Amino acid sequence: MNRKRIWCAAAVLAVLCVPVRAQDWQSALKSVASNVADKATGGALTQLALVATWNYMQPGVKLESDNAVADLAASATTASLQSKLAGIYEKAGIKSGSCSVTFSKDSTFSLVIGSRTLKGTYAFESATHGITLTFSGSGELRKFGAMHGFAYLNGTDLQLLFSAAKALSLVQQVGEKAASLNSSLATVNSLASKIDNLYLGFEFAK
Question: 43-76, pLDDT tens digit by residue?
């Protein structure tokens, strides 16, 4: 049995062959890589881990392309994008210590950004890691309707990623310094102009 199969088997044993409770996913991650374990269980690990309160740590960035040259550019620009996004997010009030998201078992979520609390419902599809956030209430975020994105485990952290346009639009809506944000966002768009698919979002830790 090769190493990959051993890891997959360990993942299945860790997650499926013991009584699974809300806290068990962390124990599983101590012995196997989260992405391997999650793949072996069809996304069940992420679905189990999602129900919790997560504290914002840093921007999430994923760049994909259909050609090798752009893939290299994506790898080279990820760190730069994260650095620039950190400044943009901070202007919008999205920073460590003042931003968190809570996913509850009843399929509701609560997003805290500074003094604001945004609520709604969510749906997660384990097979594709797709997540849909639907904001509720009478505020300006109702215009978003449903935000479709992806939720991934990165070690014991959680990444929420959306299309660049959708993620940046959300940041603009919650930010109070619109003019300054627009200028900064133009720089981010320029950096990513040669990348076919850009996913932006947020990385959280428990």
Answer: 778 888 899 999 999 999 887 655 544 444 445 5
Q: Are 179 and 72 in contact (CB under 8 A)?
A: no
How far apart CA 206 and CA 100 sit, in angstroms, is 10
Mention every residue, 6+ apart, whose C-beta is less than 8 A from residue 200: 59, 60, 61, 62, 81, 85, 161, 162, 163, 164, 167, 168
The closest alpha carbon to 118, from 142, 97, 95, 88, belongs to 142
Q: Considering the entire predicted model, what is its pTM?
A: 0.75
18 class by beta-carbon count within 10 Å (0-12 exposed, 13-18 middle, 19+ buried)? exposed
Q: Give the distance, in angstroms, between the CA of residue 6 and the centroid of all CA atoms in the same chain.
A: 28
- Any idea where the domains of the chain sit in the sequence? 3-50, 52-205
In the chain, the amino acid numbered 74 is: A
CATH number for 52-205: choose from 1.10.490, 1.20.1740, 2.20.28, 2.40.128.
2.40.128
- How many whole angstroms from its chain centre is CA 177? 24
CA 179 distance to own-chain centroid: 26
